[in-house]
Specification:
mainly alpha; Endonuclease Iii, domain 2; Endonuclease III, domain 1; 64% helix; binds iron/sulfur cluster
Length: 221
């Protein structure tokens, strides 16, 4: 099988074990704020901080930059890295009225450029915002996604996250990439864990380079 066929097969099998695709119910600005909050922490912590921010801003996140720093810090403290995140959030919400419509209209690559010009927004964060807030065709790669893809060996070892994202964006549509991204994360959290992947339970083992290598090493012993 060529690379495209392998990706389609992995997608199909993951959809069988994770049948319901994730669809967060957030406004675009809530999604953008959530994405900044969720860096280097769990979704649960980010959700908690998003709710704290909604509470202190009376439901209007665009007012965030007007609030005292101490109020904001206690709202986002559970997420960690709060001084960098605060700086990122302030820049994001104060620019939001100017950029929201542009992000909706711009092609994804220009949206990525616009978002990454803000502090604390890297290309992965920009892609998550564009995928989940504006349904653009982007393929964000977080650590779970990256680990699973690397182990599967679908892409050359030398390809970095941006190169893999660009390949996926070129060859697949937005719905495919959104579901694939999310299901790779789910596999990475439940089966293909960082320390001890549970390969025997995994529906992808016959497609996986890491599994093949492990099996061959065992057989040689
Ligand atoms: S077979 Fe093992 S290493 Fe490969 S994707 Fe599945 S859990 Fe991960």
């Amino acid at each position: 099988m060529g690379r495209i066929e392998v990706i389609k097969e992995v997608y199909r099998r993951l959809k069988e074990i994770f049948p319901i695709p994730y669809r967060p119910n957030r406004t675009p600005v809530e999604q953008a704020v959530f994405t900044v909050l969720s860096q280097n922490t769990t979704d649960r912590n980010a959700e908690k901080c998003l709710n704290n921010l909604k509470k202190v801003t009376g439901g209007n996140l665009l007012k965030l930059a007007e609030l005292p720093e101490s109020t904001l810090i206690s709202a986002i403290r559970p997420c960690g890295m709060f001084s960098q995140k605060l700086k990122g959030l302030k820049a994001l919400v104060s620019n939001w009225p100017k950029i929201e419509e542009r992000l909706r209209k711009l092609p994804p690559e220009e949206g990525i450029e616009l978002l990454t010009s803000l502090p604390f927004v890297g290309s992965k964060t920009a892609r998550v915002i564009l995928t989940f807030a504006f349904e653009k065709n982007t393929f964000p790669i977080d650590t779970h996604c990256y680990r699973v893809l690397k182990r599967l060996g679908i892409f050359p070892e030398s390809w970095d996250k941006d190169r893999i994202s660009e390949f996926m964006e070129k060859h697949f549509d937005g719905e495919f990439n959104r579901v694939f991204h999310y299901n790779l994360i789910r596999l990475g959290r439940t089966i293909c864990k960082a320390r001890k992947p549970e390969c025997e339970k995994c529906p992808l083992k016959d497609l996986c380079g890491y599994y093949r290598e492990k099996k061959e090493t065992k057989e040689e012993k």
